[in-house]
Amino acid sequence: MSGERFDAVVVGAGPAGAAAAYTMASQGLSVVMLERGEFPGAKNMFGGVLYRHALEALIGEAWKESGLPVERVVTEQRYWLLGPESVVSIGHRHARFMDPPNAWTAFRARFDPWLAGKAKAAGALPVYQTTAIDLLRDPATGRVTGVLVDRDEGELYADVVVIADGVNSLLREKLGIPRWKPHQVSLAVKEVLALPREKIEDRFNLEGNEGVTIEFLGATSRGLTGLGFLYTNKETLSLGIGVMVDDLLRRPIAPYELLESVKQHPMLHKLLHGAETVEYSAHMIPEGAWHAVPQLAGDGWVLCGDAAGLVNFVNREGSNLAMLSGQMAGEVIVEARRAGDLSAQRLMAYDRRVRRSVIGQDLRKIRRLPAMLHRWGGERLFDHLVGAINEAAYRYFLVDGTPKRQAEAEALRHVVRAAGGWRGTMRLAWDALRGVRG
To answer: Which coenzymes or cofactors are required (predicted)?
Structure first.
């Protein structure tokens, strides 16, 4: 391996790395794709939703082939605000989400090898169970010229190194980019629960290949800033919850205890009853949004996917943005290679393209949300306020002879009190509006 040279070395064979490798290899560049796991996706975890748009932008209509490893087509999405024994819900179901599919539930351990196979078929050279442990640099200019891997004589040289090795990126640190701060990452824990297909379809009101996603917050995060999810697969359910690491540092709770309490919530227990755990995993997720995104390109390198913090945690788009960013990186490198100009200035076109794209626009839109959540705190927002909303709903719908005007006033008082009075309610409403609108 020592001394081998390629047009590009891609570090990481997840959605970002495979998308970059596919884009470059299909345009004739020599590409090697490194993956530290036994196979792509072996060390990955995600909630489980993939969107058609990003996949179609990358490989065209090849997603229609029968081997696409997805579970169910998402036709209904629900959002739950959970009190200790109650729920306030909103959701949307639409038949047009079915054909063409808007999104699927999926497993990365099956999807990643499939996508990496597309890159291999296009001409990329996959090398698995190999970790890039350092960057090689030109001693005179400092330009990145390749990577050092954990094999004997493991030097690989390239015109450009595509760094797509995930949230715990070793090479990101070698570039001198600071590590994530506790308020910029969440710790997510997830279980895959086996349940007979007919029970899944009966409990979630599904027919055929229809699927449901449920995002929930409130009593299940035990006062921590966090969001949970429950997704339907063919014969399993994906259940998980993610909470901010800075909250966990203040109030240490073992992740498995958090997930166990989620499973015991009465609204979720009804859907999970009788299911058997077949897989458990935990993973960090970058959730700093716009302000946590570093410079994305430099002299001989580009940064993609989770390693770059390109995750829209509000709209659960991580793998989606990873594929989009990997494709953009590959396109810029191809253009630079054809122009014979692989300078840092030329590669910075990738940085500009990402920031102008839907990725940058969406992350900029929610740029104030992490600070807003930190300022108000999980206990007030996810425990007191969500609990008050459930109490208000109970009071509003309860018929006990109380005049409606009085019942509505009592319901409103629950929410206003939890938000800190009328002044606090107005301030919270303003902060929330700015948080989601940018």
So the answer is: FAD
Question: Has residue 360 got a pLDDT over 80?
Answer: yes
The amino acid sitting at 93 is: R
The beta strand positions in 37-111, using DSSP E, are 49-51, 70-82, 87-93, 103-106
Distances (CA, A) of 158 to 9, 105, 415: 6, 36, 59
List the alpha helices (DSSP H) in 105-195. 108-122, 170-174
State the DSSP code for 317.
Answer: B
Contacts of 260 (CB under 8 A, 6+ apart): none
pLDDT tens digits for range 260-302: 999 999 999 999 999 999 999 999 999 988 999 999 999 999 9
Please identify which residue in the block is written with the tokens 């909470």: 243
* Predicted confidence band of residue 190 (pLDDT cuts 50, 70, 90): very high
- Residue 244: phi and psi, rounded to 5, are -70, 140
Structure tokens at 169: 């990126």
Amino acid present at 301: W
| Element holding 125 (H helix, E strand) | strand 125-128
Q: Are 78 and 213 in contact (CB under 8 A)?
A: yes
Indicate the DSSP class of residue 382: I
Extract the tokens encoding 21.
């490798």
By C-alpha distance, which of 310, 330, 334 is closest to 322? 310
Q: Whose CA is closest to 104, among 210, 221, 262? A: 210
CA distances from 162 to 149, 209, 320, 393 (A): 14, 37, 18, 51
The CA-atom distances, in angstroms, between 136 and each of 31, 277, 284, 326, 414 are 17, 44, 27, 22, 60
**Would you tell me the crossing angle of helices 15-25 and 108-122 to the nearest 10 degrees?**
20
**Chain position carrying tokens 């796991």:** 37
Q: Which residues contact 75 (CB under 8 A, 6 or more apart)?
A: 93, 94, 95, 97, 98, 210, 211, 212
